[in-house]
């Protein structure tokens, strides 16, 4: 199963959702890999504690090999072990931003799919964290994935952007990956006692949009999780937000 977490709007919790779902997957015994495709490298730092020049080679090095295009030589990617059992990482770095226009010019949009096909021999679950833009890396991830999760933070701007995002995914599915499935909209930073988010969700459900029935709450524990570079399942297994991530993960697995 290859699952991409994507929204063009920043600040909706893509990295937090991708990393915590991957961590739950690994904690439940699945051999799990997270591929970080965002030049900000938030997921890389979250799962490894590393940043800047301390980050090991990862997806940027793979794409550099793709651009070099040595005849008969297959590009390789370095996989980094995290401190958590069953959970590995393909790191991102700031270098991805410089590589993007070169990759677009060379039309290397399907190379990530080939790579994930090879990695799938070693991993049962692959999660992809993407930049907050429909750029080369995000399109590559959507072409390579089986499912897409869309984080949503119950904001009116997010709601307007959601319709365009779903249309773009439909177009990409038709052109490049007919098997891609919108697995659902993940409600994040939900305030259950606030009237506006509740009403907005009721309207989205009434419009038959694929809103998943597990709502992730807002908690300072998530920020502490980022600070300690420790997903919630390891930092605080009994916390309410941790239980919500486990419930969401199990819902997705059951839908299979």
Overview of this structure, please?
The chain is α/β, with parallel strands linked by helices and 256 residues long. It has a single domain (2-255), classed as Rossmann fold (3-Layer(aba) Sandwich), CATH 3.40.50.300. Helix content is 48%, strand content 13%. It contains eleven helices and seven strands. The protein has a seven-stranded mixed β-sheet, sandwiched between helices. α3 (59-68) runs parallel beside α4 (95-106) and α5 crosses α6 (136-144). It is globular. This is Chromosome partitioning protein. InterPro entries: AAA_dom (IPR025669), DNA_Partitioning_ATPase (IPR050678), P-loop_NTPase (IPR027417). Residues 5-182 form the AAA domain.
Produce a short descriptive summary.
The chain is an alpha/beta fold and 256 residues long. It has helices spanning 14-27, 42-48, 59-68, 95-106, 111-119, 136-144, 156-176, 195-206, 220-228, 232-235, 240-255, and strands at 2-5, 32-36, 80-81, 87-90, 125-129, 147-152, 181-187.
């Amino acid at each position: 199963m290859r699952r991409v977490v994507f929204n063009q709007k920043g600040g909706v919790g893509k990295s937090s959702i991708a990393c915590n779902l991957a961590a739950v997957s690994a904690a439940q015994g699945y051999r799990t890999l997270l591929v970080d495709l965002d030049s900000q490298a938030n997921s890389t730092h979250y799962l490894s504690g590393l940043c800047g020049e301390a980050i090991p080679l990862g997806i940027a090095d793979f794409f550099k090999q793709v651009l070099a295009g040595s005849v008969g030589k297959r590009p390789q990617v370095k996989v980094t072990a995290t401190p958590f059992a069953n959970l590995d990482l393909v790191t991102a770095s700031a270098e991805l931003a410089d590589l993007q226009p070169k990759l677009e010019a060379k039309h290397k949009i399907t190379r990530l799919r080939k790579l994930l096909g090879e990695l799938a021999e070693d991993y049962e679950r692959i999660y992809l964290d993407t930049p907050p833009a429909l750029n080369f890396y995000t399109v590559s991830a959507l072409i390579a994935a089986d499912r897409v999760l869309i984080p949503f933070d119950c904001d009116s701007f997010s709601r307007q952007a959601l319709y365009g995002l779903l249309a773009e995914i439909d177009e990409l599915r038709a052109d490049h990956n007919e098997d891609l499935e919108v697995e659902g909209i993940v409600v994040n930073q939900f305030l259950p006692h606030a009237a506006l988010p509740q009403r907005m969700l009721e309207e989205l459900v009434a419009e038959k949009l694929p809103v998943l029935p597990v709502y992730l709450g807002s908690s300072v524990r998530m920020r502490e999780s980022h600070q300690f570079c420790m997903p919630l399942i390891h930092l605080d297994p009994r916390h309410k937000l941790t239980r919500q991530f486990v419930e969401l993960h199990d819902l997705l697995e059951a839908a299979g």
